From TrEMBL:
This is Sigma-70 region 4 domain-containing protein. Gene3D superfamilies: Winged helix-like DNA-binding domain superfamily/Winged helix DNA-binding domain (1.10.10.10). It comes from the Bacteria. InterPro entries: RNA_pol_sigma70_r4_t2 (IPR013249), RNA_pol_sigma_r3/r4-like (IPR013324), WH-like_DNA-bd_sf (IPR036388). It holds the Pfam family Sigma70_r4_2. Residues 26-70 form the RNA polymerase sigma factor 70 region 4 type domain.
Length: 80
């Protein structure tokens, strides 16, 4: 199993497709935004929390859930 950070780092090397294009279908807009801000824009949780108008702890939890959901969707895609 490839860690998400590695998966997207390889994808980001190919600058022809925006980062969000590598995210699987099925993610909510909030999940897409938080993953993009953290993995593509390389923002810290405190910065993302301000952008998304939430606490830093809530941001960390949302990111963790989004990452897990993304991994599940990518695994399903791989198996189809």
């Amino acid at each position: 199993m490839v860690p998400l950070d590695e998966h997207f780092a390889v994808a980001a090397a190919d600058n022809l497709i925006p980062f969000s294009g590598y995210l699987p279908n099925g993610l909510s807009e909030i999940e897409r935004k938080i993953l993009t801000l953290r993995l593509s824009e390389d923002l810290e949780y405190v910065e993302i929390a301000k952008i998304m108008n939430m606490t830093e702890n809530a941001c960390r939890m949302q990111y963790s859930r989004a990452r897990r959901h993304c991994a599940e969707l990518l695994e399903r895609q791989k198996n189809t």
